[in-house]
Write a structure and sequence with these properties.
Distance between the termini: 61 Å
CATH architecture of the largest domain: 3-Layer(aba) Sandwich
Structural class: alpha/beta
CATH topology of the largest domain: Rossmann fold
Oligomer: single chain
Length: about 400
């Protein structure tokens, strides 16, 4: 890929918005792509990878550049990826040999070579001990792309065939994830006819392990209490064969609107959305759910591969705020489960303070009403998926 001036300037603009205006990397990249409709797939892929890799390795690149000037940081990123730099003033003195030499120096410092804020490394070691280093190394690798086949409309084999005209190749993941497909190369699947027909959704393989824990069956009344835009809600409807009722709840109305659009494309008509605008909404649902999913807000530490800017935006105070919110949701929303019903508490975090420690506290305070049935830890360094935690609990 030949680096040109307009692309480089747009990359600098994007990085300024991410680091200095506190905007999310994925949203910034999406906006930049829309402004460059003349770009082909190679340019789009190169730009997106440039931004994500610069954000992912910012501390290391800053060390290599010996400056916080974004032009020099960007230049070091391209050199590290093996590209040649244009002969521009901003890149003066930056060479492949220079970057290799600085990389060898950085290897002596774990914080720099893994590009971590000091506080996050300290917290990770306190939480995970010896497991922290392999986990963070895995989280610093670019994520793979997975699809979840919509079983209401297609089989995995049919989706594989439907993607071929777009030169998109995928493969089955494992018997334990019967509807999961892994893309052999990351491509834009949203422009395909198969996506428009609702034959699949983008969903990480780790995320696809959460909903099956609930033991959902057709005809159940299921509540997804932190539904967001509905990735797991749609997985529920698929397992229920579009029979029964799903109540998808969230505090953000725009997310529920997006869920309705996705449900229509997926051919699902058993989902009812409810905006949580007061505590009364939850109280009215007391003991009504056969199955309840609490996919609670969390630090997102398990999905740093997809959202590397989280490393630079997250704070210890924010984790503490989220922990308090998580426990409030767990202790109050759990009341929506029927006696004899089941609930899953889940996060996309790798930290025990947001995961098993929350469940342990819940059982200590309400153990006379609940039993822990099963826990799963999905680790990026072991399964190779995003990091997830889930606990299946049964109400006595």
């Amino acid at each position: 890929m030949k680096i040109n001036r307009p692309l480089a300037e747009l990359a600098i603009q994007a990085l300024e918005e991410i680091f200095f205006q506190d905007k999310f990397a994925d949203k910034v990249i999406e906006k930049c792509m829309k402004s460059q409709r003349q770009w082909g797939n190679p340019q789009r892929k190169f730009f997106a990878e440039t931004i994500y890799e610069t954000v992912r390795w910012y501390r290391l690149l800053d060390f290599m550049a010996n400056s916080d000037d974004l032009w020099r940081v960007l230049g070091c990123c391209w050199l590290r990826q093996g590209f040649d730099l244009p002969n521009w003033e901003e890149f003066e003195g930056l060479t492949h040999d220079y970057v290799k030499r600085k990389g060898k120096q950085a290897a002596e410092n774990f914080l720099v070579i893994q590009s971590l804020p000091d506080w996050l490394d300290k917290y990770g070691r306190e939480q995970l001990g010896a497991d922290w280093e392999p986990i963070i190394k895995a989280l610093n690798k670019p994520s793979e792309a997975f699809l979840r086949v919509n079983a209401l409309k297609a089989t995995p084999e049919e989706v594989l065939l439907a993607l071929k005209p777009n030169e998109i190749e995928a493969e089955k993941v494992s018997p334990e994830l019967p509807h999961a497909l892994r893309l052999k190369e990351r491509k834009n699947v949203f422009v395909t006819e198969a996506f428009r027909k609702g034959l699949f959704e983008m969903q990480d393989a780790g995320s696809q392990m959460i909903v099956p824990l609930l033991g959902i069956e057709p005809g159940h009344r299921v509540v997804d209490a932190c539904a967001g835009s509905g990735g797991k809600t749609l997985h529920m409807s698929s397992l229920m064969k579009n029979k029964g009722r799903i109540i998808a709840m969230d505090i953000h109305e725009w997310k529920l609107h997006e869920l309705k659009l996705r449900a229509r494309r997926n051919g699902v008509d058993i989902i009812e959305t409810r905006l949580i605008d007061s505590n009364k909404v939850v109280k009215r649902m007391a003991e009504q759910a056969d199955r309840l999913l609490l996919d609670v807000p969390c630090s997102g530490s398990g999905v740093l591969r997809r959202n590397p800017d989280t490393k630079w935006k997250l704070t210890i105070d924010e984790i503490e705020r989220l922990r308090a919110l998580q426990y409030e949701i767990l202790s109050t929303y759990s009341q929506m489960t029927k006696k004899g019903g089941q609930m899953v508490y889940a996060t996309c975090s790798v930290f025990p303070s947001e995961n098993e420690q929350q469940v342990e506290r819940f059982l200590k305070e309400q153990g006379d009403k609940w039993t822990l049935v099963k826990e799963i830890h999905v680790r990026p360094d072991k399964e190779g998926y995003d990091g997830f935690y889930a606990a299946l609990l049964k109400r006595k």
